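pipeline/complex-builder :: batch 7 item 3
reading input block
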Amino acid sequence: MTTTVALTPEQLQRAMRRSRLRSSNRWLLFVNSPGRALSCLIIVVFTLMAIVGPYLYPANLPINVNNIYAPPSLAHPLGTDFEGADNLALIVTGARYVLLAAALAAAITIVIGTAAGLVAGYYPRMAGQVVMRVTDFVLAIPGFPVLLVLSTIWQFGALWEMGIALGVFGWGGIARAVRAQTLSLRERPFVEAARGLGLPGRRVITTELLPNIAPYIGMNLMLTLTGFIYTEVGLFFLGAVSYSTSNWGVMLNNAVFQANAVTSTRALAYLLSPLISILLITIALVTLANAVDEFFNPRLRRI
Amino acid sequence: MGLARRLTARLLWGLIMIWLVASATFFLLLAVPGNPAAAQEAQDILHGMTPQQAQRATAAIFGYVPRQPLIDQYRHYLWQLLHLNLGISIAQEGTPVSHIVASAFPWTVVLALSGILISFVVGVCLGVLAAIKRHRLSGDALSLGGAFVNAIPTFVIAILLFYLFTTIWAIFPSGGNVSVIETPGFNAGYIGSLVTHAVLPVVAYALAIVGAWLLTTKASVISVLGDDFILAAELRGLRRLTVARYITRNAMLPLFTILAIALGLLFGGSIFIEDVFNYPGLGQLMINSINTKDFPVLDGAFLLITVAVILANILADLTYPLIDPRIRKG
C-alpha cells in the first residue's frame, strides 16, 4: 500500500526544517529527565573542580589540631580530617589528580583500542592476527595486580605517569569490541562499495568505518572513565603508592587504616566524603552513558 | 585437526604468555630502586658471610645471582622457575615462596568461586526477569540498578559492607578467616567460624560482578526472544517449558565468555576485599609483601594470579565449542 506523495517545494522545505529541528532537539536527551540533567551538572562541577580546584585554596591547607575528625558544620561542610584540615577543600584540590589522570588514561585507551580494533577488523588476515594476539595478551594480564607490581618501581607521582600506566594496560577490551563491530560493518554494502571503488584501506577506515563506530566508542568512553577512576583511587587506597599530595584515594586510606573509620563512628565524615564523591561521579557517568547510547541508537529512542 | 590442534595451539600460546610475564617480572625486579638482590648480598657479606656464601644465599632467595652477567641471571631465574622454585621469602626468613603462595591460594579461590557462583545464579535470574519485564517500570529499575551496582568500585562495596555489618550492626566477625579460639579440625565450631568469616567477603565478591551478569543476560535474552526460531517454536504449539529451554540454551552463550573475564576481575578485586576484611589470601599477601618489601613473595603471588587467569582463559576457549556447535563446525 505504498503511495507516493508529490510534495510542493514549500512542503518539502517545511519537512526538512522540521527534521533539522528534530535532530537538533536530540541534544535534549541529555537533560530531558531530572536524573540526566543532574548527572550533567555533577560532571560539569567535578570537571571544573579538576581544572580550577587547586587554585581556590592555598597550597598548604590550614590545619587545626584542636578540631580533628569534626562532623560537618557551617565552617567545614564536610567535616575535617586527621589534622583538622577541611574535607571539602581536600576533595576539591584532590579532584585534579584523580580526574585528569583518568581522562588521560581514557584518551590513550580510546586511541590505541580503536586503532587496534579497526586494523584487526579490517585486515583480518596477517595484520589482524598479530594485533589480536597482542590484544589477547593485554587482556589476559590481570590489570590491577600488574599496576600493584609496577608501583614498586614507579611511584606514579605525576598524574601523567598514572594516566599512561592505566592507559597502556587498559585498552584490550575496547580493541576487541571495536574489532567485532568492524568485522560486521566490513560486510555492509556501503563499505563493500567503497572497497570496490578501489579506495585505499586507510581511507575506507577513516571515512566509512570510523564514523559508524564513533557512537559506540563514545559510550565506552564513559564506562572506561569510571573504571580508571576506581583503579587509581584503589591504588592509593591500598597504600601501595606513596604520595606527595593528597587525593581521594589517600583520604580513603587514611580514613580506613589510620583513623579506623570503619570500626568506629569517629571519622565518618572523613570516610564518606571521598566515598560519596566517587559514587556521584560513577552514577553520573553511567547515566550519561545510557543517554549517549540512546542519542546514537535509534532503536532505543523514545518517540 | 579440530580439538587436538586447537588444544596444542592454545597451550603453546599460554606458555608463551606465561614466559613473557615471568620475564617481565624478572626485569621489573632488577629495576626496583636499590636493587634488592644486590642489597641483600651486600648485607650478608657485612654480617660475616664469605662472598661465595652470600652469593648462594641471595640466589636462593631471588632465584638469580646478582652481579653475574645479566643473561646468566636470567637463565638461572627461568631454570628455577621451571622447577616451580619461586625463591625464598625475605620477611618470613627461610620459608620458600612457593609454600607461602600455595597456602594463600585456596583462601582466595574458594571465596572468589563462591562469589562467582552466587552472583551468577542471582544475576541470571534477575537478568531474565529484567528482559521479560523490559517494557515495564520494574524491568527498567532492574537494569538501571544492575548498571549502578556494576559501576560501584569493589573497595567501596567492601568498605560499606564491613562498616555496616561489623560496626554499625555487628552480626559478623570483623575480619580474619577464622576465630583463633576454635581448635582447627573437622568440628562444628571451627567450620561455623570459617563460614561466618567468609560470608561478607563472598557477598562483596558477588556484588562486584552481579551487575555484569544481569546486564549481559538481559541483552542476550532480549536478542534471542526476537529470533525467528522462537516464534516458530511458539507457533508450532510447543510447550512453554520447551520454548523456555530453547531460549536459555541460546541466551547462555555470551555469558560463558564473561566467565573468564570475571575470574580476572575477581583476582583484582580480591586485593581490595582481602585487604578490608583482613583475609589471608593472595591479595592480602601482595599488599603485605609490598609493605614489607618482600619482593620474591610479591612476584610469586603475581605470577600465580597471572597463570591462573591465563589458564582459565584457555579453558573457557576450549570448552566454548563443546557448548556452541556452530563454532565446533566452523
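note: Residues 229 and 290 of chain B are 56 Å apart (CA to CA).
queue -> next item
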